[in-house]
Amino acid sequence: MAGARTGVTRRGFLGGALGTAIALGAGPTRPAAAQSRNSPGAIPWYRRAYRWGQTNITEKDPARYDIGWWREYWKRTETQAVIINAGGIVAYYPSKFPLHHRAEFLGGRDLFGELTKAAHDDGLFVMARMDSNRAAEDFFKTQPDWFAHDRDGKPYRAADKYVACINSPYYDEYLPGVLREIAGRSRPDGFTDNSWAGLGRDSICYCAHCERKFTAKSGKALPRQADWNDPAYRDWIMWSYARRIEVWELNNRTTRDAGGPDCIWAGMNSGSVTSQARSFRDLKEICRRADIMMLDHQRRDDDTGFQQNGDTGKRVHGLLGWDKVAPESMAMYQSGPGYYRVASKPAAEARMWMIAGIAGGIQPWWHHVGAYHEDRRMYRTAEPVMRWFKTNEQYLVNRHPVASVGLVWSQRNTDFFGRDEAPDRVDAPYTGFMHALVRARIPYLPVHADDIDETAGLTLLILPNLGALSDAQAASIRRFVQKGGSLIATGETGLYNEWGDPRPDFVLADLFACHRLGDPPRLRGAGSREGAGGGRGAFAPSPSGHTYLRLAPELRARVDGPKAGDEPPATGERHAVLHGFDETDILPFGGTLSSLQVDATATVPLTFVPAFPTYPPETSWMREPKSNIPGLILSERGRARVAYMPADIDRRYAREHLPDHASLLANIIRWASGQSIPLHVEGPGLVDCHLYEQPGRLILHMVNLTSEATWRAPVHELIRVGPFTVRIRRPQRVAARTARLLVSAAERPVTFQDGMGTIEIDSILDHELIVVE
Ligand SMILES: [Zn+2]
To answer: How far away, in angstroms, is 183 Cα from ligand 1 center?
Structure first.
């Protein structure tokens, strides 16, 4: 585990011949589009397009699209690739398919063709934009069996449109025909589609195609309703995932066949694993196949913050490889709170979302809805970010992250442990750790639970309430610890198998140094709670009690306050995980815990204080001030340190944002990490730090999240923070005496001591990119 600290998967290594890749980045800014199609052996266009733009037009726009003005805008924003509306729900060219609905104001015009030619003439690449999962009533009446039906035979509808069934000839015959037509007419460089995955998980289709295909595959009838404990429903989930992969591959064969080997098809994906799960888009399997990842992930919410976009970039590249490109649609309109398609998003808010994504390896892609706006302020938002990106491009792509901490996730866990409560069971614990790591400026990487064996350089894995673990995943975690890697796990980690069926004990109970007592738990099958969107913010509410955690009294350092009864003050050093809590014997908790059988060799620095009344205040005293129920269990095996925390402090922190919870999580991470964390940043404010390396070069991207509206979108004003002292572990190859600051355009000396390089940074407004080489 010692040595290099670059958390890079084998995929990243194989795909990432770094020297070559960096040479690519220095290639021509606007290579002729024709080169991509006609030069065998050239670097394909989709690995050279770093700056993207999309004018996502309405049916009215053919009458008012000022192509000359937008060409100037492409130039001003240094755009290399554009996404142009072609067909699907609405056609922006005269399609030969009579039911392919033409835009109301299109007339006989070929707007898609005109725009594609203009972009190609300007040296830009073009992705034809499809939106393909629904159609108007005339289409439905002509081909009713191509559309999804509910259990009562009624068609699924979305507003006035009808939703096509992904198992019908609409996807197997009609759409490929449309793709071939568009590729043949206008020669776009590729295709993308933002609703390619069909009906989501909440709607089971009972059309004849689904019935026939599902029974042929599974030998079962379609499930009557959503029930995670029903084998037919489980088969339906897996079968539905497999169909999306089939569609991905079919569409790619179709467009390459019609448009040449580089004419790729790339359906859009979400930055939220829960959203991916709800629409059967398997992020890992898609990344295995994708040439480029088109992310439709346009804004933050208050609970996950800008930092979630940095997390998304690292998660996607962890699967895709760091040599591929992952542009993300970034709304220039106000997309929440409130939804105002033609009003400008506050510039500071839009800018920070872009920067946070770029810091995580995402490429910028401005997105306007409509080709004409009366709020013209939005046209100024993207330009400075796009220009800065171009100037510093070589440091922003083809780089490898440096981190010692892996935050483990799997979509399978989101599905079969999260079920209908994934925001609460899965997203909140993950997000709690993400926030705590960002707050502590500890670089980390999202790691897929299937990729643990292939991940090099990490010294600590965190399993945030990772309930569903397969035997194989558990075995790879065990191998990680056997090799000296440390582990933090919380809540119900490993208490279920990959189907969400309970295990009699934690599958990693030996590592956790404790065993479960009592009957195995059982996850609810269905329908217990609304998922994402239910309750406040991103996480569904879950019951809270008036409970606390007690800091182990035998480790209490001192008591400086009124004495309660005849309790003798304990003396002695407190455990490192309780650092900073000298003045308290309790921490707020809010959850509930039950007894565990703890190994004699383990340390229990936190125990549970059961609930007592909050109101009226006269009743608010602890009925049971002490218990033997553990809140945190620490153990060591060789070099490996293991923390198992039954208390869901990670989920609590995501929900309640108490600084004690963040400090406790950071303390545990630091204890488990030993000396392996490669970055230390001191200074005021909330700053998200991303560390990367390129040959002979270290790159630190610091994003200032300390705005006047950190707690709530949108940002009104940016606030400068600093000064900072940055210490970075020096790899062998980097021997610079000077660091360049590529936002403030300054240089700072680097002083080396004990293998760490120290740099002083005066202040950061929105972000700073520090290059040491
Ligand atoms: Zn169907």
So the answer is: 28
**Ligand 1 centroid – CA 194 distance (Å):** 20
- The CA 752 to ligand 1 mean position distance, Å, reads 64
Q: How far is the CA of 770 from the centre of ligand 1 (A)?
A: 53
Average pLDDT over every residue of 414-427:
97
Give SS3 for 682.
strand
Query: Ligand 1: distance of its center to the CA of 225 in Å?
Result: 15
Handedness of CA 678, 459, 599, 463 (dihedral sign): positive
CB of 550 within 8 A of CB of 585?
yes
Ligand 1 centre distance from Cα of residue 145 (Å): 8
Ligand 1 geometric centre to CA of 217 (Å): 14
> How far does residue 170's CA lie from ligand 1's centre (Å)?
11
Check if the beta carbon of residue 434 is closer than 8 Å to that of residue 619.
Answer: no
650-691 pLDDT per residue, tens: 999 999 999 999 999 999 999 999 999 999 999 999 999 999
Residues 6+ apart with CB under 8 A from 201: 226, 237, 240, 277, 278, 279, 280
List C-alpha distances in Å: 488 to 322, 492, 773: 27, 12, 34
Residue 161 CA to ligand 1 center (angstroms) comes to 16
CA of 202 to the centre of ligand 1 (A): 13
Helix, strand or coil, per DSSP, at residue 689: strand
Least confident of 12-21, 45-54, 587-596: 12-21
Residue 47 Cα to ligand 1 midpoint, Å, equals 36
Distance 251 CA to ligand 1 centre (A): 19
pLDDT digits (tens, 9 = 90+) for 84-119: 999 999 999 999 999 999 999 999 999 999 999 999
CA of 149 to the centre of ligand 1 (A): 7
DSSP letter assigned to residue 338: S
Are 444 and 455 contacting, i.e. CB atoms less than 8 angstroms apart? no
CA distance 356 to 705: 9
The span from the CA of 370 to the CA of 376, in Å, is: 12
Question: What's the gap in Å between 87 CA and the centre of ligand 1?
Answer: 22
Q: Is the pLDDT of residue 2 over 80?
A: no
Q: Do strands 125-131 and 596-598 pair parallel, antiparallel, or not at all (unpaired)?
A: unpaired
Reported as a single tens digit per residue, the pLDDT across 518-531 is 887 889 887 654 44
Asked if residue 536 has pLDDT above 70, the reply is no
Rounded to a whole number of angstroms, the CA Rg of the chain reads 27
Residue 282 Cα, ligand 1 centroid: separation in angstroms?
20
The tens digit of pLDDT for each residue in 111-164 reads 999 999 999 999 999 999 999 899 999 999 999 999 999 999 999 999 999 999
Residue 429, token pair as written in the block? 């614990």
559 Cα–ligand 1 center, Å: 68
Could you tell me if 513 and 635 are in contact, meaning their C-beta atoms sit under 8 angstroms apart? yes
Residue type, 100: H
**pTM tops 0.90, yes or no:** yes
Taking the centre of ligand 1 as the mean of its atom positions, its distance from the CA of residue 213, in whole angstroms, is 9
Pairing of β 751-753 and β 724-729? unpaired
d(C-alpha 408, C-alpha 449), whole Å = 6
Name the residue among 433, 471, 464 with its Cα closest to residue 450: 471
Instruction: Report the distance separating Cα 408 and Cα 434, nearest Å.
Output: 11
pLDDT at 278 over 50: yes
CA 239 to ligand 1 center in whole angstroms = 12
